[in-house]
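We emphasize that the prediction below concerns an isolated chain of 482 residues; any contacts that depend on oligomerization or on bound cofactors are therefore not represented. The input was used exactly as deposited, without trimming of termini.
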Amino acid sequence: MRILLFTTVLLFNYMFSFCQNITGNWQGNIEVNGQQIPIVFHFYKDSSGKTEGKWDSPTQNAKNLPCSDILIKNDSVMIGLKIISGFYEGKFISADSIAGMWHQGKGQLALNITKISNDGAFEQPKRPQTPKPPFNYDVKDVIYSNTDNTMHYGATFTKPFLSPKESAINKKYTAVLLITGSGKQDRDENIFDHKPFAVIADYLTKRGIAVLRVDDRGMGQTTGDFDTSSSEDFAKDVEAGIKYLQSRKDVNSKHIGLIGHSEGGMIAPMVAARDKDVAFVVMLAGTGVPGATINDYQNVLPMENAGMNEVIIQKFIALHHALTDAATFFVNTDDYKNEVSKIYYDWKKKQSPETLDALIKGTDEQVVSSLQNRYSSFHSKWWKFFLIHDPAKDLEKLSVPVLALNGEKDIQVDPKINLPAIEAALKKSTSKKYKTVELPGLNHLFQHCKKCTFEEYGELEETFAPEALKIMGDWIEEVVKK
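Result of the prediction step, given as a token string:
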């Protein structure tokens, strides 16, 4: 689920009495179009004792790129990134944590980094659940098109090997189509080297269920423009996947289900509400309340964790609402940027010195520029749809079985507000079988977490909790039998 945080204007009031040591490995994430992009720095001393560095962008397969200059002065650090015509600047907020900004071209993005080890060598993360060949089931990469042939989709289809007896009777399998979360994703929903959809497909296929997992628009072998699309467009992509599954002779067309994660958990009911060929729905960290409510929560929680009081948080939320409302109203980007400036200055006039001290860092010009850059994403087709869409209305229209799973420690889609809303909507539906489950100790990616932060997603070795897989598999088998 996409997130926009106000990190660029938070004031850090920390004092340090220790000498800053940057040697070692540091990792953080920048957010681009709703997608988390990991950045890893490696700093070391050369033979003369000078600090040198390299950096990686693992998800973009960029490794050992040179840092052109590294300057450390008191509690500040500046890292040259000449290869991309950019730089990183930040301040130490502890011995192993730096808060800063990634500058590239004319743009800038928040990037907070933490030390992940004390030596100079970067270790590839361990992902023991990622399936590796040879597989004991059939795996085929496929390409199919939508009805009017304007879109082409790259996907992987897995099904159990047929026994001679099953081949003789032309066995048809229950099949599920996996729907990714927000941000441009490949068919494995790859994030921080985790491949949750590959893990889910492997598990379900071994239990006798066929699985189709698909590249998002503009990713891998799928065509189309992701950046100009909304959840409505992605729903049409799901419908094309259902048609493909129906065309296969090895799939039982009456037993085709949808499994959606995060935004995919919102899209699955959207499709099932209007496509009577969907037999069941599994929502993984899906939503039951409007997008604006989800986005408020995503902004409020980090501020609460930072120790801000409720009054200051609500002052920020008032500004946030004004900026997002304007994004849905203004069509012209320049007009919107002018409105952002007006909104900020009008808001500032009404704030106490305590609120401004807590929320504002830098000059007014810097803050306005930062807000214009960050909130411009809300001007997109995706955000305009997401903020006003109410998933409860789709859930109320369902007549098929629904399973909704949410992790107790999810800080992106709060189970405390979403699961009750999902259940309340399903009570109004004609579905005769539905179940909502809050899974203890699991985060948004269904990992057992300890710190339960965004950054921890990549630190954890587990990709997808076994108990979540089992609940899903057991429930699908029960639904299909009935």
